[in-house]
């Protein structure tokens, strides 16, 4: 058998599973359709390692606690890549949540494992990167973390390779055939078609998750999902004080404006997406939306031509009613009992990638023992 575990996808979750499995002493193979890791959503996120302050409002306390615990671990284990940074949350006359409610949310966030917060006195507002102070009622500062998502994914995968994991880039999955004893995985890479055998397969393909399952024989059941596009833009000028948590006047969504490599990164949007995940791209209306939020709060007067770069990634959310903004964000590990050697990761957060990998290994333990 070529591997104990074959991982499809070298995004953050594929890399984390490969690392966890190799660390546990298993033989690991990873197949990735692109030439380097994190070419999909894992390089197109908001670059935040955070607990999800806004998830408190929808009662996702377990998720917030989990993410804050994982954030602290990353700050400790990968200090060169994950940095604690101040976040500023301004409250205006038109803001949908009053200052007292935000203070309660920050207190609960701190109780669940977050870092300290304080209310910024009005005499310091003029130092906040030109933030519009008209009708400003309060500003809170709390702390979360920021990372380079591509670099973090590459580091996790490099650690997996150092422990013996074998990674094949530019390699497309063509099919998976499973029986009671093993899976045969058909791939096409630089050397042509290759057939690999593994005790089990972890489908960490992100937005391609159901496309991978469609190539499994016998065909397992799939979760019903929606793909949601998130666009970010990069504009000139740097924010020096930290990251700003803004409320979009258009629809009350959260938008972050943050320093990024000497410029300002603004995101994100939530636009339903249908089609090939490889073809996702920023829409003009999304870029205009983000630019309008930034201009509203910082009075920069930037126009579409001032946007220096833009990128879009896809979230995998459970299908359901309501807006994507309010949809649950828990990671789902899915396995059909008729094909127990294939486990799929639906969703997942950059912050909690290591926790997800540990849960995957727990779910695979019985299959690996039988294998």
Describe it for me?
This protein is of the alpha/beta class and 371 residues long. The chain folds into two domains: 3-42 and 150-224 and 329-370, FAD/NAD(P)-binding domain (3-Layer(bba) Sandwich), CATH 3.50.50; 71-147 and 225-326, D-Amino Acid Oxidase, subunit A, domain 2 (D-Amino Acid Oxidase, Chain A, domain 2), CATH 3.30.9.10. It contains seven helices and 19 strands. Strands 3, 4, 5, 6, 12, 13, 14, 15, 16 and 17 form a ten-stranded mixed β-sheet that branches. Strands 1, 2, 7, 8, 9, 10, 11, 18 and 19 form a nine-stranded mixed β-sheet that branches. Helix 1 links the parallel strand 1 and strand 2. The longest helix is centred in the last third of the chain and has 18 residues, at 353-370. It is elongated and about 70 Å long. The relative contact order is 0.19.
């Amino acid at each position: 058998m070529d591997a104990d575990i074959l991982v499809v996808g070298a995004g953050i979750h594929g890399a984390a599973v490969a690392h966890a499995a190799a660390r546990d002493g298993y033989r690991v193979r990873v197949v990735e359709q692109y030439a380097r890791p994190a070419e999909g959503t894992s390089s197109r996120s908001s670059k935040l390692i955070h607990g999800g302050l806004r998830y408190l409002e929808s009662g996702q306390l377990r998720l917030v606690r989990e993410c804050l615990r994982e954030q602290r671990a990353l700050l400790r284990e990968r200090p060169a890549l994950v940095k604690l940074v101040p976040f500023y949350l301004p409250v205006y006359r038109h803001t949908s949540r009053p200052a007292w409610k935000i203070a309660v949310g920050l207190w609960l966030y701190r109780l669940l494992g977050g870092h300290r917060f304080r209310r910024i006195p009005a005499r310091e507002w003029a130092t906040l990167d030109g933030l519009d102070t008209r009708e400003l009622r309060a500003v809170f500062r709390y702390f979360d973390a920021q990372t380079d998502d591509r670099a973090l994914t590459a580091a996790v995968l490099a650690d997996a390779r150092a422990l013996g994991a074998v990674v094949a880039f530019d390699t497309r999955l063509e099919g998976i055939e499973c029986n009671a004893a093993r899976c045969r995985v058909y791939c096409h890479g630089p050397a042509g078609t290759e057939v690999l055998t593994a005790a089990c397969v972890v489908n960490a393909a992100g937005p391609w998750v159901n496309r991978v399952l469609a190539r499994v024989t016998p065909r397992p059941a799939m979760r019903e999902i929606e793909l949601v596009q998130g666009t970010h833009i990069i504009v000139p000028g740097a924010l020096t004080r930290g990251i700003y948590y803004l409320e979009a006047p258009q629809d009350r969504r959260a938008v972050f404006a943050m320093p990024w490599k000497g410029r300002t990164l603004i995101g994100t949007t939530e636009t339903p997406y249908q089609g090939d995940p490889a073809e996702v791209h920023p829409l003009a209306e999304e870029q205009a939306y983000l630019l309008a939020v930034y201009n509203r709060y910082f009075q920069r007067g930037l126009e579409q031509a001032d946007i220096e770069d833009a990128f879009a990634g896809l979230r995998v959310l459970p299908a359901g009613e309501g807006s994507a903004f309010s949809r649950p964000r828990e990671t789902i590990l899915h396995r059909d009992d008729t094909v127990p050697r294939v486990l799929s990761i639906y969703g997942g957060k950059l912050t909690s990638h290591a926790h997800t990998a540990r849960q995957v290994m727990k779910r695979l333990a019985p299959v690996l023992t039988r294998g």
